[in-house]
Amino acid sequence: KLFAPELVMEHQGAIGVTPAQRDSILKEVERGQAEMLHLQWDLNGDKEKLVSVLDTDKIDEAKATAAASRVMDDENRIKSAHLSMLVHVKNALSPEQQKKLRELRDGARAASAGKDGG
Fold first, then answer.
1. How many CB atoms lie within 10 A of CB 85?
2. Which of 28, 63, 90, 105 is most buried when burial is the number of CB atoms within 10 A of its CB?
3. With 0-12 CB in 10 A as exposed, 13-18 as middle and 19+ as buried, what is 97?
4. Whose CA is closest to 77, among 48, 36, 41?
5. Is the pLDDT of residue 118 over 90?
6. Beta-carbon neighbour count of residue 99 at 10 Å?
7. 16-20, 27-31, 105-109: range with lowest mean pLDDT
8. In the predicted model, what is the mean pLDDT of residues 25-37?
9. Is-contact 40 78, C-beta < 8 A?
10. What's the rounded Cα separation, in Å, for the pair 39 and 26?
11. Which residue, among 41, 22, 20, has the nearest Cα to 30 in the 3D structure?
């Protein structure tokens, strides 16, 4: 239902992306990637803390649960940021462009499946 920015870039001519749409999508992708980079940084730090809590002979269950919860919260924030970026990309496209992009994407999938034997 959503479109990866790479797919839009790959078919920008075929779907008639305007300069304003291009700028809007680029700005959103840059914003989303910067946000996800910060979130990934937080996630890796929290993973490191979780590993440290788990790397003992006797694990403090409350600390382990709290650390794991932070990791899962970080992962959910990353997923949410990614979804938000994809929604913004789709919303930048007209219904006609979305239809054409779906056709191009689905045609590529069908062609790829045919090459792979099914």
1. 22
2. 28
3. buried
4. 36
5. no
6. 12
7. 105-109
8. 95
9. yes
10. 20
11. 22
Which of 100, 79, 88, 107 lies closest to 4, judged by CA?
A: 88
Residues in the chain: 118
Q: Are 97 and 15 in contact (CB under 8 A)?
A: yes
Handedness of CA 90, 11, 81, 88 (dihedral sign): negative
Token reading at 78: 């990353």
HEC-encoded secondary structure of 25-57: HHHHHHHHHHHHHHHHHHHHHHHHHHHHHHCCC
> Quick one: pLDDT at residue 117?
63
6 CB contacts (<8 Å, ≥6 apart)? none
Question: pLDDT digits over 83-117, tens only?
Answer: 999 999 999 999 999 999 999 998 877 777 777 66
Return the DSSP state at 113. Answer: H
Report the candidate in 95, 85, 2 with the shortest Cα–Cα distance to residue 37. 85
